[in-house]
């Protein structure tokens, strides 16, 4: 049996830590790296906390829920509190359902317009496709935490969304925080938690109910 000695063991552990940190920090230094890190992800599911900040309010409005994504473009965004509602993305179309009399019914009044624009983007982001959006121009900002700044290409959309700031997780292929800047007096932060990838998601979750 070969004895490495305590000094050598410490060196090996130190190098291993450096390598593992490098793998975590360096996964999102270019668009190509982001796409490669996300290419093996077929499903994503997570909880989220959404905080809407308004200048006229002393405290943000808080909603909580879960989201489910299955490649290439099936997505369920479900608010569980304070009021249950569901947004479903399928084949590029977004429909919203609200709870009435213990069942979900389709909302045909055009509510949640901001999220209807953002949902198709989240599906693309879950596949690592930030720089190919037809709606937003993307700028990559590498650092200790990589951020991506998305700005609307169409001036008419700027009246609703000025910019979107995305903070990537240290774990490859994952998003930590999305900040939607709607105006100088309003912005929304969505923080993701308990993220799971490549777990089976039942078809029923991509239908209203």
TrEMBL record:
Keyword entries, A-Z: Lipoprotein, Signal
InterPro entries for this protein: LolA/LolB/LppX, OM_lipoprot_carrier_LolA-like
One Pfam family in the UniProt entry: LolA
Highest taxon in the source lineage: Bacteria
Name of the featured protein: Outer membrane lipoprotein-sorting protein
